[in-house]
Amino acid sequence: MITLIAAAGENNELGKDNDLVWHLPDDFKRFKQLTSGHHIIMGRKTFESFPKPLPNRTHVIITRNISYRKEGIIVVSSMQEALEIAKDDDQPFIIGGGEIYHIGMSFAQKIELTRVHGTFEADTYFPQISAEEWILLSEEFYDIDERHAYAYTYQTFIRRQPDSLPTDLKLIE
Q1: 60/155 Cα distance (integer angstroms)
Q2: What's the Cα-to-Cα distance from 16 to each of 19, 21, 24, 147, 154, rounded to whole Å?
Q3: Which of 42, 49, 102, 164 is at a distance of 20 to 30 A from 94, taking alpha carbons?
Q4: Could you state, in order of their start, the residue ranges of all structural domains in the chain?
Q5: Is 3-164 assigned to CATH 3.40.430.10?
Q6: How far is residue 172's CA from residue 99's CA, in Å, rounded to a whole number?
Q7: Looking at 18-170, which runs of residues are DSSP E strands?
Q8: Which residues fall within 8 angstroms of residue 35, CB to CB, at 6 or more apart?
Q9: Count of beta carbons in the 10 Å neighbourhood of residue 84
């Protein structure tokens, strides 16, 4: 199940100057919990925004620079190559940035989105989620607290494939 995972503002803002524009510790914890043990597919700029490779994950970096090398990563030149490398993973995650999300949207079967309730100055955006293609499966709201300056909602979407949905599935529409 190829999954896009992201945090985006109300207008699909992802970040500015290759960095997030908010700090949500519980969202980082959720990201770690969901992606640990899996392949994480990202662009070079996203990878370079990390201080070091994330533990317990296989890093697959998509870049046009085929000579790009860093310790602990696999370098590819296309989403198809990245997914071929991750083919034995039951849930590889596409983790950004903006261009990689746009490419990955057509390959994904699931989206794990943290909707950050605010509008932000940004230069990178998450693709629009079409209600014709995606079903909101679940959502869980969290309010502002002492550790989180913004309210946010965890949303899980699945690609709309009516013939393959379990009959007991409860949908939010």
Answers
A1: 25
A2: 5, 7, 16, 22, 22
A3: 164
A4: 3-164
A5: yes
A6: 28
A7: 39-43, 58-62, 73-76, 93-96, 110-116, 124-125, 134-142, 152-159
A8: 5, 54, 57, 93, 95
A9: 11
- Rounded distance, CA 28 to CA 83, Å? 24
pLDDT of residue 66: 82
Element (H, E) at 28: helix 25-35
Question: Do residues 81 and 66 make contact, with C-beta atoms less than 8 angstroms apart?
Answer: no
| Exposure on the CB side of residue 20, measured as CA atoms within 13 A | 15
Overall residue count recorded for the chain in this entry: 173
CA 120 vs CA 23, 24, 31, 130: distances in Å: 13, 14, 21, 22
Instruction: Please state, in angstroms and rounded to a whole number, the distance separating the CA atoms of residues 109 and 157.
Output: 8
Higher pLDDT, 160 or 116: 116
Question: pLDDT digits over 37-74, tens only?
Answer: 999 999 999 999 998 899 999 999 999 998 999 888 99
pTM: 0.90
Q: Tell me which residue of 79, 72, 124 sits closest to 98, measured CA to CA.
A: 124
- Quick check: helix, strand or coil at residue 71? coil
CA distance 93 to 56: 13
The Cα–Cα gap between 93 and 11 comes to 22
Residue 138's DSSP bridge partners are 156
